[in-house]
Amino acid sequence: MPTTTNQIEWCHVRLGEDMNWWVKEVSDDVHWDVDGLSIVDPRQIAHILDLVEPLREYNFDQDIFDRGFIAFRIDKDLGDGHIRLVRTKESFSDAEDPLFGLPDVVDEENGPYADFLNHITKLRVAMLNDMIDFEQKLTVDEVEEEIREEENNNFIEGKAVHLFNEVTSILDYVPAGWELDGEGGSDEEEEDLDDFPDIVDDEEAKKISESENLKWDEDDEEEEEDLYEGGPPDEEGEEEKEDL
Asked: What is the mean pLDDT of residues 189-194?
């Protein structure tokens, strides 16, 4: 029996003020609720795949990742930070075009995306217990409770939690008071994706060009104007120097 996720063929997404992508409309509005529904872009997918690399030693299952996200490619730039995406059968690991990933949340509790979150949480806990000498072993329940509390606080404050933050909060998780040596986490600079299409307008480029950090040419000109441009000292001044 085919799943309901097979019925979604395209989605219309927008770039939010937080510079994350959010779903505005989908082809199947019967099974999908777009209210607060987010989607990861190609850069974010690449970053998530980097973060799961250490978990491969703990039997990370790539198939669970691939089932947790529905792959979409760019179909059309609609302007003003809106694009139309269409579904593709390409896999995230070897796609020729940059892909977006929509979490399969038709069944939020037991669906493929929920399975993915459970999978990486268990592996992260196993890795932390191996790398840190806790007095008592860290448990999955403890991690889930702490992360859920943070999400509830954001909800109370009216903040929508993007799925990228939801995933990285697990993959970067370290208990308070502890740290892992040699782990970059989410503070590392994300890899550049040279073939990522120019979807957004040039507003960000304009902001950068107007930045104070890029006004060094003007500052140099002002400094040159302040240099001494007078003539040689007068003769009286020269005679006073000779008397000394």
From this structure: 46
Q: How far apart are CA 164 and CA 102, in angstroms?
A: 11
Residue by residue, DSSP assigns 25-92 as: EES-TTT---TT-EEB-HHHHHHHHHHTGGGGGGT--HHHHHHHEEEEEEEEEEETTEEEEEE----T
* Total Cβ atoms within 10 A of residue 20: 19
The answer to whether 27 and 8 have CB atoms below 8 angstroms apart is yes
* pLDDT(109) > 90: no
Q: Is residue 15 classed as helix, strand or coil in its secondary structure?
A: strand
Strand order in the sheet with 10-15: 38-39, 21-26, 10-15, 82-87, 69-79, 99-103
Q: Is the pTM of this model over 0.85?
A: no
> What SS3 state is found at 137?
coil
